[in-house]
Design a protein that fits this description.
With 273 residues, the protein is α/β, with parallel strands linked by helices. Helices cover 48% and strands 15% of the residues. It has 11 helices and 10 strands.
Length: 273
């Protein structure tokens, strides 16, 4: 692992605070106590993710949150307020869930790796947010649940990301019971990568981020895109597709540099091309 990198704090207004340090973009949900995914919060996250696509200085993204709750899911008060609309809220509900689906897919399809730094409760669409990230590292105090069944609203969209991280029976257990699982169970299920003490969470996540940031961004982008693409294919198609990816990767300058450096027993100098 690379050396731990200190993240410089950012001072900003709004539901998402962004800070960039040494190639690591830290996006902090900043609307405690719930850090709910209101339309404003989702729009703010999308804006930051879109900006990061064209910013070559961004190599890794960390998604974190302030307060005791990582993310409590959709803003139920915001949703419920539209039941008095002429259509009983249908148009607003459709807009909200479409925005959420767009956000989750933007994370998966983003050219930069996204790491969830989870300290506290991640529930419903908040769990969906964690499951959509490429890596997830949590504190011992982190908890996770899909409690929609308890309030008459099954977590149907969160289960898309959940079921792509854990086994079907584990996903159904969470979805049907609505019960909260601790960090150890979440790791056993495959929802998170690692558990660390709260006081070291930021350091460990930053260390992971810096290690990834030290790689060729072209190669990381190529690998992330290929990973999710092949996962949706049949076995034979996946090998044909990834074979083509490997050929193109071999033709990249960074592959030539990396292999040459390995053979020559020196440190590679990436050009990200």
């Amino acid at each position: 692992m690379a050396e731990v990198v200190a993240i410089k704090p950012a001072i900003a207004d709004g539901p998402v605070i962004a800070s960039l340090d040494k190639g690591i973009l830290r996006l902090m949900l900043a609307s405690p106590p719930a850090n709910a995914l209101s339309l404003a919060v989702m729009a703010a996250l999308m804006a930051e993710l879109d900006r990061a696509k064209s910013d070559k200085s961004v190599r890794v993204i960390i998604l974190a949150a302030s307060g005791k709750v990582f993310c409590a899911g959709h803003d139920l008060k915001e949703l419920s307020a539209h039941r008095s609309d002429a259509d009983r809220g249908r148009a607003f509900f459709e807009k909200t869930f479409a925005a959420c689906a767009e956000l989750m897919q933007a994370i998966v399809r983003h050219p930069r790796p996204v790491i969830a730094e989870v300290d506290g409760l991640a529930t419903a669409a908040g769990l969906q947010l964690v499951a959509s990230c490429d890596l997830a590292i949590a504190s011992h105090e982190a908890t996770f649940c899909t409690p929609g069944v308890n309030i008459g609203l099954f977590c149907s969209t969160p289960m898309v990301a959940l079921s792509r991280n854990v086994s079907r029976k584990q996903a159904m257990e969470m979805l049907l019971t609505g019960e909260t699982i601790d960090a150890a169970t979440a790791r056993e299920f495959g929802l998170i990568n690692r558990i660390v003490p709260r006081e070291y969470l930021n350091q460990v996540v930053s260390k992971y981020a810096q290690t990834i940031a030290s790689k060729s961004s072209l190669v990381v982008k190529t690998g992330k895109e290929a990973f999710y693409a092949q996962a949706e294919m049949g076995l034979a198609d996946a090998y044909v597709y990834t074979g083509r990816v490997m050929v193109e990767n071999m033709l990249a300058r960074d592959a030539e540099e990396g292999i040459g450096a390995f053979v020559g027993k020196r440190k590679p100098e990436w050009k990200d091309e």
